[in-house]
Design a protein that fits this description.
heterodimer, A: alpha/beta, Rossmann fold, four-stranded parallel beta sheet, 4 strands, 51% helix, B: Alpha-Beta Plaits, four-stranded antiparallel beta sheet, 4 helices, elongated
């Protein structure tokens, strides 16, 4: 099954989803398609002008273009996903740095789709990490 | 996802005794026709998707809980990203954060292998009124 991970660039979630036998939908794969097929040659930009226009499907015109740009990349992934894993209470610099609005919009879009969603807290200690891995494994193995 | 090219990032958990050099030598020893680039956190492996996934499964056989991997959007040494060519490294802060977390995830995976399971914390119930009264009443 295709699992959307949030933060979408997380190594830990990507690895765990793959490890437990599913296909992670990540920002890296979406950007790879743009790198391979389109001309993305203006670092640090990862999106084209068309993407920002496409982002209007997920966020209104009054929303800052940065959020629209992100949603243009992540929105199609959420539409494609069969389930989602969301990591809550992450440190500030974990995931999409400093853009809480994008994160909230992503959570809203996932909720609106009504797919099975698993919320897990960022593990601060070793004991929490055991629970984190065990819960993630349980969720992923329980998906059909 | 593009089927032609896949660039994978292999990151070693800080709890592991494995070094990037050892990891790169091991990947080279597979004799696969993939590009391998040693980095400070592990290595980058680039090649056709099937080949890279094959390398990943071989690495996981040897180091199941110590090496973590994810896809990297840009190819190895891409001038838009490579530091040697003054490219930007916007994803590096995230990698640093995850590197710290990997130690705990390795611990979690090892414990799961040994049979640890998630136990939900006991549900907190409301105290019965009579018990509450007894506590409150002045004897």
């Amino acid at each position: 099954m295709k699992i959307f991970i949030d933060p979408p660039n997380s190594l830990v979630l990507f690895d765990l989803v793959e490890r437990f036998g599913h296909e992670p939908l990540s920002a890296m794969a979406a950007i790879q398609e743009r790198v391979d097929n389109l001309e993305v040659d203006m670092p640090p930009m990862n999106v084209t002008l068309d993407d920002v226009v496409r982002g209007l499907k997920y966020a209104g015109v009054e929303v800052p273009s940065g959020i629209r740009g992100r949603l243009a990349v992540w929105g199609p992934l959420i539409e494609e996903a069969d389930a989602a894993i969301i990591m809550d209470d992450c440190p500030y610099s974990f995931g999409c740095v400093g853009c809480e609005r994008s994160n909230l919009m992503v959570k809203y879009l996932i909720k609106r789709r009504g797919i099975p969603t698993f919320h897990v807290s960022y593990p601060e200690t070793d004991e929490q990490a055991v629970d984190f891995v065990a819960q993630t494994r349980e969720f992923l193995e329980g998906l059909e | 996802m593009s089927q032609e090219r896949e660039t994978r990032l292999f990151m070693i958990s800080p709890r592991s005794m494995l070094t990037p050099d050892q990891l790169v030598r091991m990947v080279h020893a597979f004799g696969a026709a993939a590009i391998v680039k040693e980095t400070c956190y592990g290595c980058l492996v680039e090649g056709p998707r099937e080949l890279v996934l094959d390398i990943l499964s071989k690495v996981r056989e040897t180091y199941p809980n110590e090496v973590f991997s994810k896809v990297r959007a840009y190819p190895c040494s891409d001038p838009r990203r490579c530091r040697a060519q003054h490219g930007t490294r916007p994803g590096y802060a995230q990698l640093e954060e995850e590197w710290e977390l990997l130690s705990r995830i390795q611990y979690g995976l090892e414990n799961i292998e040994r049979g640890a399971k998630y136990e939900a914390p006991a549900e907190r119930k409301r105290i019965p009124v009579n018990d509450f009264k007894r506590i409150c009443e002045v004897q």
